[in-house]
Amino acid sequence: GKQWYQRRVRAFDSSSDDSSSDEDDTNELLAELARIKRERANDRAKQEAEKAAEAERIRKENILSGNPLLKLGSGSGQNSDFNVKRRWDDDVVFKNCAKGVDEDAKNDRFINDTLRSEFHKKFMAKYIQ
To answer: How remote is the C-alpha of 41 from its chain's centroid?
Structure first.
């Protein structure tokens, strides 16, 4: 009886050791999982911060390159010419002459003046004159 009791106690102790080692393994795995999640969250935050910094750098670069007055100070061989760029046909004498535009097309245009509108002209011609 005593040997049987000692075997049972040893069996119980070994099973409790197995369960405690299982619990230890589980705790280690959970700690590892938490560490991996923290690392991934840190990596994600770092990548988002880098993206935001890159977007801000691009935005500032666009702002600086868009204003010719800010290029004055740099003077590194850049064109500091403030002349307005002109189209190739700006100096043509007859600029707004349209070929083949008939009077009917001109009459169909909307005029935001009630006294000069086509409706008013037709109305006056029909009922007043």
So the answer is: 23
